[in-house]
């Protein structure tokens, strides 16, 4: 079984692709298959969240690109930016993972949330698309070389820069 243990700089020199939903891209330990059908084990540092386009190095030297799978989502659009911000606020207030675009917010299909947003004046439709939700205020993503693969978050970076 091919084993993927570390993220590397994105490159066009990939040998395979790994298509994963957002739920699976949040796991640090995963047994799955490449697009080719080859069995693969993903063994990454805890807290690693894979984004579409991330490249992973296999133990045998091959590079594998992660592709964000299409998922069953809902997309809310509003007549103006203020209303869209209000919708994003209410989704966030419910701790719902949300992907924010310039003129939409996307979230996992949920009839209750859709009705809430319609009540706020949004048009809400079902879509099938890759899901790349926001990392959150403290989730600066994962860094590889700079911190040895440890996930610390934005608040720690701000404190470090302030010299505290």
Q: Mind explaining what this structure looks like?
A:
It is a single chain. The protein is built from 4 helices and 10 strands. With 164 residues, it is an alpha+beta fold. It folds into 2 domains: 2-68, Sandwich (HSP40/DNAj peptide-binding domain); 70-130, Alpha-Beta Plaits (2-Layer Sandwich). The strands form 2 sheets. A 6-stranded mixed beta sheet has the order 2-6-5-1-4-3. It has a 4-stranded antiparallel beta sheet with strand order 8-9-7-10. The longest helix has 13 residues, at 81-93. It starts with a strand and ends with a helix.
Brief write-up:
This protein is α+β, with helices and mostly antiparallel strands. The chain contains 4 helices and 10 strands; from the N terminus they run ββαβββββαββαβα. Residues 141-161 have low confidence and may be disordered.
Topology:
Elements: E1 2-8, E2 16-20, H1 22-25, E3 29-33, E4 39-43, E5 55-58, E6 63-68, E7 70-77, H2 81-93, E8 99-100, E9 105-108, H3 111-119, E10 123-130, H4 154-162
Parallel strand pairs: 1-4, 2-6
Antiparallel strand pairs: 1-5, 3-4, 5-6, 7-9, 7-10, 8-9
């Amino acid at each position: 079984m091919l084993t993927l243990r570390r993220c590397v700089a994105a490159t066009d020199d990939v040998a395979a692709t790994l298509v994963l939903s957002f739920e699976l891209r949040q796991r640090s330990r995963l047994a799955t298959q490449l697009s080719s059908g080859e069995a693969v084990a993903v063994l990454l540092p805890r807290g690693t969240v894979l984004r579409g386009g991330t490249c992973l190095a296999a133990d045998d030297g091959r590079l594998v690109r992660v592709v964000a799978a299409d998922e069953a989502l809902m997309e809310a659009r509003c007549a103006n930016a203020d209303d869209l911000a209000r919708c994003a606020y209410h989704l966030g207030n419910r701790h719902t993972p949300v992907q924010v675009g310039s003129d939409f917010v996307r979230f996992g299909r949920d009839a209750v949330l859709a009705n809430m947003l319609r009540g706020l004046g949004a048009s809400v439709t079902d879509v099938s698309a890759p899901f790349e939700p926001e990392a959150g205020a403290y989730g600066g993503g994962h860094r590889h070389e700079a911190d040895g693969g440890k996930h610390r978050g934005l608040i720690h970076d701000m404190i470090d820069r302030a010299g505290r």
